[in-house]
Fold each of these.
Amino acid sequence: MKKCITIALALTLTLALFGCTKSSTPSAQPAAPPAEKISDSAGESTLVGISLPTKSLQRWNQDGEYLEKELGGMGYSVDLQFAENKTELQVSQIDNMITKGAKVLIISPIDVSTLTNVLETAKQQDVCVISYDRLIVNSDAVDYYATFDNTIIGQIIGKYVVDQLNLENNAGPFNMEIVSGPNSDATRVLFDAAVGEVQPYIDNGQLVIRSGQTDMEQTATPNWEEKEAQSRMDNILTAYYSDAHLDAVLCLNDSTSLGSQSALKAAGYGTQDNPMPILTGQDCDIANVKAIIAGDQSMSVFKDTKILAAAVAKMTDQILKGETVTVNDTESYDNFSKIVPSYLIESLFVDQSNWQELLVDGGYYTLDELQ
Ligand code: BGC
């Protein structure tokens, strides 16, 4: 029987016995101290496969680097692959990891619904699967999910717009547009949480979306591509804002925020007479923190990828040692095949008021990197 299924059952039993469901203050455990090389029965170092979507975004490079470092420090061999945002390439890379004998797969899917077959192979070969950051759907082979809490991130982003426009006291109306990620199940939780915060003000007319583009499909950015976000914003500005000021862009991550900024600048925003709108983001990529400092982007969400990587490395180690795996949510994430036991990490917003304290004094970036 698959090793990590046994552990998941043990976990369920533990939770049932102690009536414990979700820890209210999830926190990552420190990674285990460096160990000797951990080997399987044939004396080979135990292999962990890591499949990430693309090298083109700063965050995935960091995730890969930190995961590799943590797992290497624990004595595991690591096969780290990036799939250039190409679904077929990701499938073949994962297939290859299984062939090479990986015992655990840590996967952040490009398309959350196209890994069903390859994960069936993983399951047949007793390989455990941790869905990383994005939840793989339509597969009962997904054993665990580890992510930043996307509901909280969405709420932070949406609330920021509400607070900055002071919508509780200022009737407006203000013009706003929404820039989302791919129209997929992986974006749904984030989108719903962010839009949920502004929806009452759209409904009562304080926020006006002149483009009329409000749902996930209409506001989508394929693959979170900066250029896609830029050309959509170009079109929106030309078609709907030649005689009106855009006051806010509810943007769901940093790459799409950069694309939106380029379009806004090209349309003449960013001057004293024509200030940039309130513009949100997520990830605190260096280019975006620089934009926050310069006043081109209002905020971003700080997701400390070191903490996520350390937590996932620990989960991997627990799986491979047959220990109870640390999770703090056993209810929220239904991947349409099962409820996936999850480990959720909280995040914080960064803006001009706190970037130095959180990112520099906290040791995430040096001041030089941000200049
Ligand atoms: C991640 C974001 C990231 C986006 C684009 C999402 O799954 O949660 O942090 O900006 O993918 O890569």
Amino acid sequence: MSRKRVAVLISGRGSNMAALIEAAKDKNYPAEIVLVVSNRPDAGGLDVARVAGIATEIVDHTKFGKDRAAFERALQDALLKHRVDIVCLAGFMRLLSADFVNRWQGRLINIHPALLPAFKGLDTHKRALEAGAKVHGATVHFVVAEMDSGPIIAQGAVAVRDGDSEATLSARVLAVEHRIYPLALKLVAEDRVRVVDGRCLIDGEPVPEGASMVPGA
Ligand code: GRF
């Protein structure tokens, strides 16, 4: 089976992008990272991608003013130019329109630093601590027009510890993100994920092997 061509969209440091690049170094991994796109010219992840020898594109949203359609056309052009099959959002801080999302339906995934549907949006670790959550984690999901929604492909959980700060909790969740994102992309690239009634079945089963919990993390 030929490997799926993947673009990773970033806005910042790109540690999840790096985890995907690392996973894809294995020739048996079903996806190759062919492109990294940033909407910010100064995103730290761009250098990491360049060092790894991966093509990079900058689609700077500030150049398009309020014209989101033009921004997304530029994004789409970059993806088409590199013959991308699957798009991974990894800390990409722009909302995408329903038009764009629908065009990539089933081929556009995101990682969110919380156990969705809890704590959609920003500052998830702070909010989990304030809420007194005992368990927190990360989710990889298909992107739909509504923010941080869409069928859940994989989740990883961590226990919230007494005395956790935003920094300590986010560091443990990030380690989980770096494990579940490559796993989720692998499942999608292998066409093993099917959405039925808004829920993902992996190989026809509700729970992907090894992806439901990362106990003790
Ligand atoms: C991650 O926590 C990701 O879940 C969220 O933004 C952060 C990006 O981090 N969407 P990085 O750029 O992958 O290091």
Amino acid sequence: MTWRASVLTLFPAMFPGSLGQSLAGRALETGVWSLDVTNIRDFARDRHRTVDDTPFGGGAGMVLRPDIVDAAVDSVADERPVVCLTPRGRHFTQADAQRFADGPGVIMLCGRYEGIDQRVIESRGMLELSIGDYVLSGGELAALVLLDSIVRLLPGVMGAPDSATEESFSSGLLEYPHYTRPAEWQGRRVPDVLLSGHHGAVAAWRQAESERITRERRPDLWAVAANQ
Ligand code: 6GU
């Protein structure tokens, strides 16, 4: 079955964007997954195609109306989870990517302006997700990030199935460093163990490097990994 992504946005030209290239683009062409993009503005009902209004209680910016967003979601809704991309959301993780990849697809609502009326987020049971602690001008780039990380996990998208399970985060550790030819470059030599042909020693070195780098760079990840 084709894994289906539906995106709801006020900027449909931002899709497929980078997802039309490389691994995801090839998989889109070959039907591993499908992408449909809906312009939220198509669900406005007035002459000016208004989708937003001023916030109750006052303040800066505009808020997307719940009735317009609900009609847009309704046009694609099925059994798939509905994700609302917002800097107020919980941080998206590799475990989320795997869970979405294991399901039938996803519906992604991209916010703009100051936000989306909270009632439609609640009534649709949306999952609010963020990609990090910084503010983007809209959820579109975040949706592209989520889709990239999910699509590469779909069966048949990545060349070597092994490289997905060995990489950073699926083990809870950061990845070890990589080297290729030349064995010496600008006076820097590749670690001797990698040239030794001793597979057990190579594996042990890589594990130790993963642990060292995780401890140094991401003590938060290390605290979790060290207890497992
Ligand atoms: Cl999902 N949306 C916006 N607008 N900004 C973000 C984000 C999402 N995640 C991090 N920053």
Amino acid sequence: MHLLIPAAGSGKRMGAAVNKLLLPLLGQPILAWTLQAADRASSIEWIGILSQPGDWPAIKQILAAMDLSTPVQLLQGGATRQESVCKGVEYLYGWGTVERVLIHDGARCLATPELFDRCSAALQQVDGLIAGIPVKDTIKVTETGPNGIQIQSTPERSRLWAAQTPQGFRLSLLWQAHQEALAQGWQVTDDAALFEKLGWPVYIVEGEETNLKLTTPLDVLLAAQILQQRFNPAR
Ligand code: CTP
Ligand code: MG
């Protein structure tokens, strides 16, 4: 399975001076944890990192320190996550030999190798899938009016899932979906949403409760706790 890792953001909500993926987390940069998990997934045979050229020296340094067994290529990302993924999809589609692809956010550095392998296996049976977990909170749909934020409705929780990555697709369809998005000016926050707009089926694979997207400094604290437990439970 070929894997694209969007890593070309700046991490504004993290509030650091550099791309959040370069920040340290328990002894190595956040991106290194993501790469380590993907490398340990037996189904992943190639990794492309969508990233900004300004970050390439730092990312090359991370790769040099890691000695991964999976081939890794740095690819130029775009101005939005969607544009970054689109560039990666276009690149792989150009090879003419790749059938399926997984997309996994660099910022989800707690995903396990087992999750990558579960998604890869499931993608042999369908053309679109995402990792997801059941929503635990009761979610309210609101509208903001003159008197404040007013609740409109409460969707039935049993039907709600929180979307994660990896997300996996048949490459030719994902390429088509991104072309359509460019033509129509669609802006979405994940790739599944493009399939949904086109009426193409996307299935849920059981994700992981620990598969957080590191967005704010609190997430980094939580991630450190989880990794500490996972790799050094005795301490
Ligand atoms: N991403 C990307 N290209 C962009 C923007 C984001 O490849 N132009 C990547 C990020 O590097 C991250 C993933 O998409 O791995 C999910 O995005 P997010 O968590 O929002 O990261 P940032 O956009 O960097 O953070 P922020 O929105 O707080 O600026
Ligand atoms: Mg962002």
